[in-house]
Write a structure and sequence with these properties.
Largest sheet of chain B: none
CATH class of the largest domain in chain A: Alpha Beta
Order of helices and strands of chain A: EEEHEEEHHHEHEHEEHEHEEHEH
Oligomer: heterodimer
Strand order of the largest sheet of chain A: 6-7-8-3-9-10
CATH topology of the largest domain in chain A: Rossmann fold
Structural class of chain B: mainly alpha
Strand content of chain A: 25-35%
Radius of gyration of chain A: 22 Å
Shape of chain B: globular
Radius of gyration of chain B: 20 Å
Largest interface: A-B, 33 and 28 residues
CATH architecture of the largest domain in chain A: 3-Layer(aba) Sandwich
Largest sheet of chain A: 6 strands, mixed
Distance between the termini of chain A: 38 Å
Helix content of chain B: over 70%
Number of helices of chain A: 10
CATH superfamily of the largest domain in chain A: P-loop containing nucleotide triphosphate hydrolases
Helix content of chain A: 25-40%
Number of helices of chain B: 12
Structural class of chain A: alpha/beta
Number of strands of chain A: 14
Distance between the termini of chain B: 20 Å
Order of helices and strands of chain B: HHHHHHHHHHHH
């Protein structure tokens, strides 16, 4: 398992604003990683530094063991930027062929590679159009296609599904899952369900600092928590409903989403406990809309940010 | 540096420029200007400069030996073209070279290139493609001027062709430092109009400084490559070669700050 990237005392300032504040971070290959945090946390800045768009104010960064501007790293990393635009007035296929050639393909191979990635994203019919003739969603898919050219080892995706229709977004998520078997993705997204769905690990940034860099399972305490979304708010005395179950430590109801309950348990047989809980809810005519192991990632992030704010 | 990537980028950028605003912004006024000018020379109007009145007029603009060399010993049509091309070169190059990097920098397509090539490769390929675009345009108008000279001037055809090739090369070498000059501006600006404005402003500022300080410090005229202009007309090969050499030196000196700026800037 190699090192995808490493930052040492990384600082990036924009005038008086510290977008990244002495970050020490190492990410190993082998698991798709989510990069999350509120607006202004420094996610896009980190991506931009990893790709060499931005120069660090101080500190060092290596990507795939190399400095970001090293020739050896070029073509082994790719990026779906959040807000960059392709060359105007030139067809999408011509641009993809250019990118493929820059990654070492000859003319014929580059043409085939451009076709391959357009086929993967199901946008082959858009290849002859210039990017400005495409809709936002179509452009997004084309830009995602460019990130797949040449089988890069590390793919950075900044908000990969924002602006896509639900069908396309689902398809993109399925594609990322499929491709992540043999390459590494780092995905920045505000869609925490998406991060939970696709990623195994998570990096949480807030105000330019790393707040967590761990497996999602560890962060949400998947061995000890169960989060259930009901079809209606539970009765106030829901704790009484499970009082005979010794494995249950505590039940919390979500203040914001009253239908959601979080069950903290300590059991050697969590699967059996889960079945018993569901049976009990069914007996009380409480429908279960969603069930997931661990605390909800979104709740944990919100709590983390709230704690940060209260400390400041 | 990977030369395959540099060549690939160069060819793409050259083709892209031909149909994009950044190329057309230079090509349309350039060819319009030269079409009108060369059309007016098609009946041999430049031959007037090799006569007494013409020489008198020419010595008002150039020193006598240079005027004699240009309009008596060489094709007057090509010489007039060469003098006017050299005089207007900074203006056209500023138009053609202002957007080497500027508009592609801020959240532009350079982001897609930077994961595939180094900044050095991008910088060099953009400089070379701009030079190639301007060079191609210069070659075309020099070719047309040579054809007109062949049909109107009394000099022998081999002499005219030789002088045409020489004029084309002089113009190409003279264009290079101005393209490099604009690479400095383009390396720190984020839009083509901004780059053009900054380029013209800096050029005018330098001209102003040269005009103001030149009487006391003649060496200050060497801030801009225009100082070598007079030597490019020289019939002495040694003077001509040293002028061409100094233009290459200007190119390298101007490229250096542009490269340093581009290496460090945020894109």
């Amino acid at each position: 398992m190699g090192e995808l990237f490493a930052c040492r005392h990384l600082v990036k300032r924009f005038g008086a604003i510290r977008a990244l504040d002495k970050i020490d971070l190492t990410v190993q290959s082998g698991s798709t990683t989510g990069l999350i945090g509120p607006n202004g946390a420094g996610k896009t800045t980190l991506f931009s530094i990893l790709c060499g768009h931005l120069r660090p104010t101080s500190g060092t960064v290596t990507v795939l063991g190399q400095p970001t501007d090293a020739t050896a790293v070029k073509g082994r990393i790719s990026l779906l930027p959040q807000d960059a635009s392709l060359f105007k007035g030139t067809s999408v296929t011509s641009q993809l062929i250019l990118f493929a050639r820059l990654q070492g393909f000859n003319s014929t191979q580059a043409r085939l590679e451009a076709k391959r990635v357009l086929d993967i994203l199901e946008v082959s019919d858009l290849g002859r159009h210039p990017p400005e003739a495409l809709s936002f969603g179509q452009r997004k898919r084309v830009m995602l296609a460019q990130a797949l050219i040449g089988h890069p080892e590390l793919i950075l995706l900044d908000e990969p599904t924002s602006g896509l229709d639900p069908v396309a977004a689902t398809e993109v998520r399925r594609l990322i899952k499929q491709l992540s078997r043999d390459r590494d993705f780092i995905i920045s997204s505000h869609n925490l369900d998406e991060i939970e769905d696709i990623c195994k690990a998570v990096i949480i940034l807030n105000k330019g600092k790393v707040k967590a860099n761990c497996l999602i399972a560890d962060f949400t305490d998947q061995d000890n928590y169960l989060t259930i979304t009901l079809d209606r708010p539970p009765p106030p005395d829901i704790t009484r409903l499970f009082q005979d179950m010794q494995d249950i430590v505590r039940i919390d109801t979500d203040i914001a989403t009253r239908e959601k309950i979080s069950i903290h348990f300590q059991s050697d047989y969590p699967d059996q406990l889960q079945i018993r809980i569901l049976e009990r809810l069914q007996r009380e005519n409480l429908g279960v809309l969603d069930l997931r192991r661990g605390k909800a990632l979104a709740d944990e992030i919100i709590n983390l940010v709230k704690r940060e704010r209260s400390q400041n | 540096m990977n030369w395959y990537r540099i060549t690939t980028l160069l060819v793409f950028d050259l083709r892209h420029s031909l149909f994009a605003i950044k190329g057309l912004f230079f090509l349309i006024p350039f060819f319009l200007f030269w079409c009108l000018f060369l059309f007016s020379l098609k009946d041999g109007a430049a031959s007037w400069l090799s006569g007494n009145e013409g020489m008198l007029f020419a010595t008002w603009l150039l020193d006598f030996d240079t005027a004699k060399s240009l309009f008596l010993y060489h094709s007057p049509t090509l010489s007039l073209f060469l003098v006017l091309a050299i005089t207007t070169m900074p203006c056209f190059v500023l138009l053609g070279a202002n957007d080497q990097l500027a508009s592609d920098s801020a959240r532009g397509p350079l982001r897609f290139l930077l994961t595939r090539c180094t900044r050095n490769e991008i910088f060099l390929s953009r400089f070379l493609s701009t030079l190639a675009l301007i060079g191609t345009a210069i070659t075309i108008v020099t070719l047309v001027a040579t054809c007109i000279a062949l049909s109107t001037d009394s000099n022998s055809p081999p002499e005219i062709v030789h002088y045409g090739v020489q004029s084309g090369l002089i113009l190409l070498v003279y264009a290079a430092p101005f393209v490099a000059f604009m690479s400095i501006i383009s390396a720190f600006t984020s839009s083509a109009p901004g780059s053009l404005l900054a380029g013209f402003s800096l050029y005018c500022l330098l001209l102003g400084i040269i005009a103001y300080y030149h009487p006391d410090f003649p060496i200050i005229s060497y801030l801009l490559p225009s100082a070598t202009k007079g030597y490019l007309y020289s019939t002495d090969p040694r003077i001509f070669m040293s002028a061409a050499g100094s233009l290459l030196l200007y190119t390298l000196v101007y490229l250096l700050p542009g490269w340093l700026l581009f290496r460090r800037r945020n894109l």
